[in-house]
Write a structure and sequence with these properties.
Helices cover 39% and strands 14% of the residues. By secondary structure, the protein is of the alpha/beta class. Bound molecules: iron/sulfur cluster.
Length: 318
């Protein structure tokens, strides 16, 4: 029955980890108001699906969301931003994420927002009333490096400011320190500094993973990172092991890359997890979930959407 209902869904889809046998995410829905992504990260895994193009609002997004809400389990979390950032610069104009959040919060849906955007700050008024947690991505403290690897995203210094504003407004925040790319953001001292900074901002959970090469993202890294890009290309081509369309570094190399992050998180008393690494023993994963869904607070009791008459709500929303 659930499968049958899922087939009719338009924008709220069961999360698909692209068939990864290593994904440890709990069952959840994914929701992406935009397709394409203006943040243009070199390492993006989604570009083979969404293309390398600016964020474009999905047609009839709010109407389709309302349609889907009447056909999905109200207790299952919704992850916004699984394949396109929900807070690209275009969100200032279209406000699709804000409008969706207003609906989701009003009916008590559990929401996890994954973003590099700082426009999330604008929506604090909604977020703090709802069953909402935010997991920003921060891969480095170095604004200059971020400008190269995440050229369209706000600098990490600004992302950290936003993160501090979220936590000081009592919005649960976990951070994706992800991906860790060899030769790029794997310096142990810098990692220690980053985790220390997150701890000062009251972040209590981090999730991390190593960069996995796909043909398109590896080509972008090679082009965009000069000599280092060439080294990364050679490393993955010579040592990479194929897992469901990705090239993974051998396990001992991945452990070496991730260990400094996990040790720092331990030192600061944070919960931690790894994402799609096959590293699930306590040494690597001591949080209740890998994606941060365990951070979602319970502030609004889920409401029956039929009673809410979402169609009328939609008509009044315009
Ligand atoms: S923010 Fe996420 S979806 Fe957007 S380009 Fe970067 S990695 Fe891809």
């Amino acid at each position: 029955m659930r499968k049958l209902k899922e087939r009719s869904l338009r924008v709220l889809k069961p999360f698909d980890p692209w068939n990864s046998p290593l994904c440890t995410c709990p069952f959840k829905y994914s929701l992406n108001p935009y397709t394409g992504c203006s943040h243009m990260c070199l390492y993006c895994y989604a570009t083979s699906y969404i293309g390398v193009r600016k964020s474009t609002p999905k047609k009839n997004f709010i109407k389709n969301l309302v349609h889907d809400l009447q056909r999905t389990d109200p207790l299952v979390p919704i992850n916004m931003g699984t394949s396109s950032d929900p807070y690209p610069p275009e969100e200032s104009i279209y406000k699709l994420t804000r409008r969706a959040l207003k609906i989701l919060v009003s009916i008590g849906r559990k929401v996890l927002i994954t973003t590099k955007g700082v426009i999330v700050e604008r929506d604090i008024d909604i977020l703090k009333k709802g069953n909402v947690a935010v997991t920003p991505t921060i891969t480095t403290l170095d604004d200059n490096l971020a400008k190269i690897i995440e050229p369209g995203a706000p600098p990490p210094s600004k992302r950290l400011e936003t993160l501090g504003i979220l936590t000081s407004n009592d919005i649960p925040v976990g951070v994706r320190v992800d991906p860790i790319i060899p030769y790029v953001n794997d310096d142990e001292k810098e990692i220690e500094e980053l985790i220390g900074r997150l701890s000062e901002l009251n972040v209590s959970f981090i999730v991390t993973s190593t960069y996995k090469a796909k043909p398109d993202n590896l080509a972008r890294m090679r082009r965009g990172l000069g000599d280092i890009g060439e080294k990364i290309y050679n490393l993955y081509k010579s040592k990479g092991v194929r897992v469901q369309g990705y090239l993974y570094l051998p396990r001992e190399m991945r452990e070496r890359l991730l260990r400094p992050i996990i040790r720092s998180a331990e030192r600061y008393g944070m919960k931690y997890a790894t994402c799609r690494e096959g590293l699930v023993t306590k040494e690597w994963f001591n949080a209740p979930s890998c994606d941060g869904t365990h951070l979602i607070p319970f502030r609004v009791k889920p409401k029956n959407v039929v009673e809410m008459n979402l169609d009328r709500w939609l008509a009044s929303e315009g």
